[in-house]
Fold this sequence. Notes:
By secondary structure, the chain is of the alpha/beta class. 28% of the residues lie in helices and 16% in strands. The chain contains 5 helices and 6 strands, in the order ββαβαβααβαβ. The chain has a 6-stranded mixed beta sheet. The radius of gyration is 17 Å and the shape is globular. Bound molecules: iron/sulfur cluster.
Amino acid sequence: MQHKYRETVLFFPSQGQTCHAYCTFCFRWPQFVGMDELKFASKEATLLKEYVEQNTQVTDILFTGGDPMIMKAKIFATYIQPLLDANLPNLQTIRIGTKALSYWPYKFISDEDTGEMLNLFESIIKKGINLSIMAHFSHPVELETEAVKIAIRKLRSVGVQIRTQSPVLKHINDKPNFGLKCGVNR
Ligand code: SF4
């Protein structure tokens, strides 16, 4: 866990310390290449819950990694359920940083625990907590597959917000009209 910004705590679930991708610009690589001394990971879901409980200025938790969407729904629930059960009045938003929409959209379509994961997402939202997928996309072409479109619809159908972020990458997305080349901005 890392209390990085006044309102925001980053949490690195230990089972999410690998990733669908190996981006060249990634600054998290020590966490998923076995350099144990550099790992931030914590298995302590209760520690997270207690920390947010005691630090009422914290409104946001960002689950990050690696990629937390490597985790099965059952494992992810072990981190989420204590937060929901605690009825934390200050907790407004849970964010999940993930490359899954681009590299494994089937996570939200047809994996054996897809239904369980979507139900868990829905239970967060029903509790009055915003849930945002912080989708790692480097180029609009990643939004063109049928699978990613279906996955986005599935997430939206249970009320998940999807936001995206990317570093500026030379020759990839460093021109204002880079999306035009693949027809995405038509
Ligand atoms: S998707 Fe994110 S965590 Fe995964 S390798 Fe790329 S930058 Fe790193």
